[in-house]
Amino acid sequence: MRRTRPRASSSGNPTLADVAARAGVSLATASRVLNDSTRKVGPEHRERVVRAARELNYRTDLSAQAIARGSAPVLALLVSSIDDPYFSAIAEGVAESAHAHGVIVTIAITARDSERELTSVRTIRGQRPRAILISGSRISGNPHTGELLEELRAFTAGGGRTLFLSQSVGGLGAVRPANSTGAQDLGIAVSRLGYRRAAVVTGAAHLESVAERTEGLRRGLATGGGKIALVEGDSFDRSGGYRATRRLIESGRIEEVDVLCAGNDFMAVGAMTALRDSGIQPGRDVAITGFNDIETAADVTPQLTTVRFPLAEIGRRGADLALDPSTPLTEDICVPGEVILRASCPPRTPHRTA
């Protein structure tokens, strides 16, 4: 029986039928090769299909593939911001893992807005990704937590995989920085250097990462008789660090402390600028610390004392787990940090006064 050559698509883009005709195989065989079917295709036919696809410049329709297989070769990553080096480092690790697993990464920006996060998850579910990773601090008293969990559980019930790169919620798995113990270690180190009265410049109190780091720092300082004397909150970014520190300076409260502990390195950079703008020298007139050890922490002057976390490794590990269907995703994995002492927090000399 003579085989009829399928007609090319009217859009001019080659179709799966075009590839099958060029390779001289059935449509089903071409589909199995190009959509990574578990059904085996002989090496000769596979080579013919791959060659035909290359010659025709054929591209797989991810939407059609998602319908056929139940999911697309996509991993969705939700981040709070794209200009924060913390999230870009995590995204780098996620992208490396995704590439190794043969999937692509799509990123949604939540801006630390719980409603926007929920809307993003709902939209992403419709795209049928293989997995969803959610980074960014969880929010205490979040009114959307219940709905978010419903969406994520429905996603996993349909064969999807989901994991937090922040605090675990509702028994779902997580890979995250050990914020509390890292901050406690920083407090102990600062106390051993002779500092006793800290001002904490950090993000909003309802962010769980803020609460974890502040409480950990409090415990660490207490081991040497120190304490947190002041807490000033603002947005969890460079501008927030600048504004919060300016308020401490303008109110005169900066005079009450000997060390300023920022909630993250991005805030610490803003805080250092605010100090300099007021003629106060970071590391000399008042010590300063950060958190996370982003790349610029070692480039600022003075170099920033901070807590180092392997952020790219956290992203990579989380993606590896999410893309491995044989691994249960219920464990809450806390990745330890390391205190990095630098010039912004030198040993306290006798002439320093609180």
Automatic annotation (TrEMBL):
Q: Which Gene3D superfamilies does this one have?
A: 3.40.50.2300, lambda repressor-like DNA-binding domains
Give yes or no: UniProt keyword Transmembrane helix.
no
Positions of the HTH lacI-type domain: 14-69
**Which InterPro entries does this chain map to?**
HTH_LacI, LacI/GalR-like_sensor, Lambda_DNA-bd_dom_sf, Peripla_BP_I
Give GO terms: molecular function aspect only.
Answer: DNA-binding transcription factor activity; transcription cis-regulatory region binding
Q: Name one Pfam family in it.
A: LacI
> Which keywords describe this protein according to UniProt?
DNA-binding, Transcription, Transcription regulation
Which PANTHER family does the record cross-reference, listed alphabetically?
Answer: HTH-TYPE TRANSCRIPTIONAL REGULATOR GALS (PTHR30146:SF109), LACI-RELATED TRANSCRIPTIONAL REPRESSOR (PTHR30146)
Name the chain's protein. LacI family transcriptional regulator
> What species is this protein from?
Streptomyces tardus
